[in-house]
Every structure is written in structure tokens, then in C-alpha cells.
Amino acid sequence: MLETTIEGKTWSTGADYQSVNPSDLDDVVATVRLAGPDAVRAAAESGRRAQREWAAVPAPVRGQFVAALGRLVAANKETLAQLVTREIGKPIAEARGEVQEIVDTCDFFLGEGRRLYGQTVPSEMPDKQLFTFRVPVGVATIITAGNFPVAVPSWYLVPALLCGNAVVWKPAEYAAASAKAFADLIWHAGLPDGVLNLVLADGQSTFDGLEQALAAGLVDKVGFTGSSAVGSKIGELCGRHLQSPCLELGGKNPMVVTEDADLDLAVEGALFSGFGTAGQRCTSLGTVIVHESVHDEFVRRFDAATRAATAGKPDGEVLFGPLLDRKFADSYEQYLGWIGEHHTVYGSTGTGRITSDNPREGFAGEPSKGLFYHPVILDGVRPDDRVFLEETFGPLVGVTTYRTLDEAIELANKPGYGLSSSIYTTDPANAFRFRQGIGAGMVSVNNSTSGAEAHLPFGGNGKSGNGSRQSGVWVLDQFTRWQSMNWDFSGKLQKAQMDVAEIVPDVDFRL
């Protein structure tokens, strides 16, 4: 039984939830005792009690905790990766990469404990000095999705803890076992009780508890990774309490393929970003916007590559496995209902769920055991189609055409998301014009829309987020506040803008 953990002790309330292996629905990975709103508030109270003492630990010493966590994760890499694959159906190669991203994040931030720099600033008055300092925000409540059950949480938890904050972490309930395993590694890396509290709850209880905790002044920062719809509600809630949350939301990520592109390379990128993790990444490819002169050839090659790709049980060498959970399978079936008569479907031997009656050629394993779905390439997508405008979380990629690069950029921006984007071209001018015009927070040139590195800012604009960024030094602005100090050692009161010496020039001088 997995339960909410506050100050190192379990908190037993609420109903039970079963986290099930989506590639084998008979395999119950964990039974989770869900908590109610009171647990969110209690966890924040615990964090408030523990935070000041943790913040008093010198930042370089907090960096030692981050270093220890990285070593523990590396030592447990295969075990944690296997658990991620079992619980959410991510192919094992991707799961290993996800765990490695935690290690990379720790490797980066362990040194930031020695680089939480402020500045000394010259004053406009004599015998006075100005300083700036980074100080922790206090208690951060972090709510994460389950498609990246350990890597994305590390983007929040590692820098938040390094900066001297306490954290309340609410992971997705369908990835609770992976979250608990990661939390155990954090606690065993030397973190004091109460500094990280794990809350296992459903969405509504979390929102209600967060509302209570914010009203009580117990939460100083909210981080959320999930859908744009829920993110807007959290943003509204935080705004009522004059807080700016860190929101990493959905995407409808475009890939532009120019007339001079390397088509084989573009197909490789589209295949990975469109169907890796069964299209269940926030950075998954949404629509390929391909120049009309190479459209037919691109679709032919993309269709052939997708049909040849192996789907199936995720513990082997497959491109993608099952959908994460039943609720995502239900949603994906709704998206398939958006296919219209003007669309042409490519990519597989069928659409919908893969079964013995609706087989996919070359499937690895027994499809009836899990939530496996055919990949869909949808050609003929129009700019007013729902499938063009809205995120379709699952293995579905749209294709449309353009004539001029300006038209391609307009199409790429039209859905209003702004997370990731990509252009395939051999002309540098196209690459730079695309970067200037696209509204996405991340741009790839001759690379897929998916893929992040621990030292590069990650985040989006528009429906994809509020401009906050994760990873690299940029995330430090989410978990610290700038504090300024002026120190006057003149022995008298010097008033800014008033007691300032003046330089008097001879403005009438001429050579």
C-alpha cells in the first residue's frame, strides 16, 4: 500500500486506487491510498516548519545533498527504469534515458550550490554599498503528470531543494509507484524530515487542498505540469493570491519541412517525436507542415517508416508501447472521432485499439493484454479542423501543406500553443526566419520537436505556459526571490536622488 508521506510518516485517508501496468492490465503495480484536501494543507504546514532550518544550511552543503541524490539515482538506474516501464508503459530505452536525465539534472545543479550568486552594486552616493541576494521562496507545491514520472519532477524538485525551499509533491496517481521510489531516493540522500512531503491524491482533492493552503499563507510557489485546461485554473487560483506559478502545459507542436529538406532525416524526426512514448509527450509532434512540392514523397516515406516501426510490449526494442492509462485511452478514442471525410489515414493496418480483430502488422506481444493503439498519420488536415487546433495526446500526427515560409509560420502559430517547434531545411536563412517568426519557447533545426537537455531552458508560451522556464540556471528564478540591501556607512542619512553629487559640464564649450 502506497500512502501520503508527511515528515517521514504515512497519512492514511481516502479511497484506494490501483496503479495498473498499461501493457498488462492484469498486473497491479501498486495500490494507492488516496488522501483528501486536508493532506495537502498538512504537508504544506510540515514544509513551513522544516523550511527555515533547511534554508539555514549553506547552499554549497545543500549541493552535497544534490550530489548524493545523483549518485543514488545512478546506482538504482536500472531498477527505477524497469519500474517506470512497468507502471506507465514507456519503452525501456526511453525509461533509462528518463532516469539518466535525473542524474544529468543533479550533475548540473550540484555546482549551483556554489553559484547562487548575488552582486555588489555601486551606489550613487559615497560611503554606501548596494547588494543583491537570492533567497528561497519558502514552500513550493509541485504537481506533476505521469508521462515523465521521475524526470520532469526532478526539474522542479532538485533546484527547489537546492535553493533552500521545502516541497510538497503531488505526482499523478497512475504513476504513484515510480514517484514513491524517486521520493525514497531523495529522502535517503540526506534530506531532513518535512523538507519533502509526498501527497498521493486525485486532482480535485489536490486543487481543493491547494486552495486551502494558499488561503492560509502556507504555499509560496506552485509548479504544475499537465494540461492547458487545468493549468489555466491553477493560474487563476494563484493569481487570486498574487502568486505567479510555474506552468508547463500542453503543446500542438509543429514541424515545418521545406522544399530543400533532407526528407529521410525529416521522417526520422517525425517518427520519433510523433510516435515515441505513443505520442504522449507535451513536446510530441502535432502537425507536419510540409512544402507542397515534396508533400507526396514525404507522406510516402513517413507512412512506410511508421508501418515498419515496431509497436508492442515496452520491455523490448519498440518505438512505442501502450497508452499511459485508461483515461488517456478514452480521450484518444474521442480524438479519433475528429477524423473527417476529407482526411486520408496512413501509418498502420487499422485505426483504434490494436486487437486480434484489428491487428497491427509486426506487433510485438499480446495486444489484448494492454492499451495498445494504432499510430495514425492524418493527411489533408485543414487549419479549421479540431485535429489541427487542439492537442491530441496519443499516437496521431496531422499533415498539411504550405507554399511560402511565411504561410508555414502562420500555420505553425495558429493553434495558439507555444511549447516546441521544428524546421527541417538545408538553408540557414529558412532556419533563422522560422526562429524569428515562431511563437514557441523552443526551436529545433533538423531535429525533432522532442528532446530536452538538463542545462537548456524548457518551457512554453501561450496555451503551453506562462513564460516560466525549467532546467538550467533559468529555473533558479522560479525558486528564489531577489532581495536587495543597501548599507550606508557614512554616519549620516543620505537620501537617494536628493543627496547626490552633480557633475557640472561646460555645455557652451566649442572647439
Would you summarize the structure shown here?
The chain is of the alpha/beta class. The protein contains 15 helices and 21 strands.
Question: What would CATH call the homologous superfamily of the largest domain?
Answer: Aldehyde Dehydrogenase, Chain A, domain 1
Q: List low-pLDDT spans.
A: none
| Count of spatially separate domains | 2
Reading side by side through the largest sheet, how are the strands ordered? 14-15-16-13-12-18-19
Shape, per Cα inertia axes? globular
**What Rg, in angstroms, do the CA atoms define?**
25 Å
Subunit structure: Homotetramer.
Enzyme class: oxidoreductase
Keywords: NAD, Oxidoreductase
Family: Belongs to the aldehyde dehydrogenase family.
Structure explained in plain terms:
- The structure is a single chain.
- This protein is an alpha/beta fold.
- It folds into two domains: 2-249 and 465-485, Aldehyde Dehydrogenase, Chain A, domain 1 (3-Layer(aba) Sandwich); 253-454, Aldehyde Dehydrogenase, Chain A, domain 2 (3-Layer(aba) Sandwich).
- It is 36% helix and 20% strand.
- β18 (420-424), α14 (428-437) and β19 (442-445) form a beta-alpha-beta unit.
- It starts with a strand and ends in a 23-residue tail after the last strand.
